Structure formats: C-alpha cells, structure tokens
Amino acid sequence: MRKIIIDTDPGIDDAIAILLALSAKKELDVLALTTVNGNVDVEKVTKNACKILEVAGRTDIPVYKGNDKPLVRARINCEEFHGDDGLGNAGAEDSEKEIETEHAVDFLIRKAEEEKGELTLVPIGPLTNIAQAVQKDSGFVKNIQEVVIMGGAEHGGNMSPHAEFNFWTDPEAAKIVFQAGFRKITMIGLDATSDVFLSPTLRELLYLINTPISRFIHKMTRVYADGHWEIEKKLGCELCDVLTIAYLLDSSVAETVDAYVDVETSGLCDGASVVYRTFYYPDKKQNCKVAVSADTKKFFEIFFGYLFPEYREFALREL
C-alpha cells in the first residue's frame, strides 16, 4: 500500500480527487491532508478539507493548515470557477472537524523523516508548502519517495497562453520544487487533464446514483460546469486534480515522456512550465516525467470503478 499525503487547495476537482483517493482503501493510505492558499484562501480550503473528510466518513485523517500566500507574491484565488466557498457553494462552513495545530510545512518535514523513503507527496494546489519544506529542511528531499504533481502544461495554459493556475499562482515555489533534486517527480499538467472531462451525461449519472458522495460531487460541479461554459463554452468540467489519483492507481492511464522541467518566474511567460523533452534535448538532465495525454475510458473506469463500482458499466456505455 502506498503512503501518501495530499497537499491541496480544495477546490472542486481537489475534493473529487480526495474522495477518489479515500475510496482506494487497499491501494492508498492517505496519512493526512495539508492545505495551501489557491482556489480560495487557506482558511476556506482548510474548512473544505475537513468537510470532504466528513462526507467520506474519514474524519480520522488529520488536516494541517499551511501557507496563506505564495512565497514572494500577493495572494491569488479562483472563485469564479470554484464558488465563493471553493466547493461550489456546497456548505463547507458547517464542518465540525478540528484542525491540527502543527503547521503543514512542519508536519511534512516531520512525517517525511518518520517515513524515510516511503512517502509519496501528491500536491494538487500551488507548490508553496512543498517548496518551503525544501528550503527549511536539507534532508526533506531525500526522505521523499515520489512527488506526483497536478500543475503546469507543455502546450498552453489556463491563466495565460503559457501558464497553468497552480504554477502561475506561485511560480517561485514550482521552480524550487523542480530544481530540488527529488528522486522522482511526475507532472500531470493540462496536456493530459484536458482528456478527462466530466460530460453532462456522466454528471447526470452522478445525480441519479443518489448516494451522499455522488450528490455531493453533482452539487459541487454545478458552479464548475457553469464556469467552463461561461469562459470556454465547453459543456461539463475538467477533472484536473482527479487524474493525479487515477495515475497513482494505474500509471497506464497517462502517457508520459522524460523531460527536464523549469519554471519561468517573470516576463510574458511568467508561471510557464518549460518542458525540455530529453529525447530532443539530450544535454538536459531529466528531472521529471511529464504526462502528455490521458486515456479517457481508462480514467472513467478507475473513477467509477472505485467510487461507484456498481455503476461502472453504465458510465462506460456513455464514453
């Protein structure tokens, strides 16, 4: 069983990613959620993390609050896609779960030391907490087995022509993480997540399944789907962060290439992840695997197979 910590800024797709991870009880041991400013401010995302665990019936999992702003920049949020509360206005404020007193960065450092070489980090928000752990503890990097990141893009962004939201929010942090020397990093960016789009039909199926979790996802994704229509004129919504968990469960869900990744921190391309595929740039030393596409059918097999297994075949008929 793989031991993971999800570093997150819930966020609708973050919430669904967490729910998927918690459903994979035999494969993933979710040790904790650590939170970071991103889709909404850190106070809201921390409450949201608690709410998600309550919906999943997993309040035994601790939540650690992290950084409330990027390393060197002003705070940025994304309410237009995620709603005022970050969960599509699904009511996270009523969570009663207590938050741990230890800061997320200190917890990450401590837990990495305790689990030496056994821990996979799954950052699906801005990389502020991970970068600060790198800066604060010289042994942190070598104590981590793997980092699977949702962020970046090889070809085109969603906040600028070049930059994806998580990297654009804190590019200095992203740059630190890619240059830190982690033994294994996988970047699940927009090139791959564009292949995992929740259609209106599959979203309606979630409503009809009529469990607390399926209705929670359906309710949250109303605002998310509306945002995709208003901004992109697309029907449905992209499940960006969820692909990271699907990849942990079955790496064949995404095609990856070996690459050296750097992050731009100024100018017209501020926040862009610059991907040097090592096949074309052999002078660059690989520091990452980059997901370039995803298998849509396999993704939804995983998604419904773990969360709603009795409805898996119904879902696959619609693909």
What descriptors fit this protein?
11 strands; alpha/beta; globular; two-stranded antiparallel ribbon; 14 helices; 319 residues; 9-stranded mixed β-sheet
Task: Write the topology of this structure.
Elements: E1 2-8, H1 12-23, E2 28-35, H2 42-56, E3 63-65, H3 79-82, H4 104-114, E4 119-123, H5 128-136, H6 140-143, E5 144-150, H7 165-169, H8 171-179, E6 185-188, H9 190-193, E7 197-198, H10 200-209, H11 212-232, E8 237-238, H12 240-249, E9 254-263, E10 273-277, E11 288-294, H13 296-307, H14 312-317
Parallel strand pairs: 1-2, 1-4, 2-3, 4-5, 5-6, 6-11
Antiparallel strand pairs: 7-8, 9-10, 9-11
Helix pairs in contact: 1-2, 1-11, 1-12, 4-5, 5-8, 10-11
Could you characterize the architecture of this molecule?
This protein is of the alpha/beta class and 319 residues long. Helices cover 41% and strands 19% of the residues. The chain has 14 helices and eleven strands. The chain has helices at residues 12-23, 42-56, 79-82, 104-114, 128-136, 140-143, 165-169, 171-179, 190-193, 200-209, 212-232, 240-249, 296-307, 312-317; strands at residues 2-8, 28-35, 63-65, 119-123, 144-150, 185-188, 197-198, 237-238, 254-263, 273-277, 288-294. The strands form two sheets. The protein has a nine-stranded mixed beta sheet with strand order 3-2-1-4-5-6-11-9-10, sandwiched between helices. Strand 2 (28-35), helix 2 and strand 3 (63-65) form a beta-alpha-beta unit. The longest helix is centred in the last third of the chain and has 21 residues, at 212-232. It starts with a strand and ends with a helix.
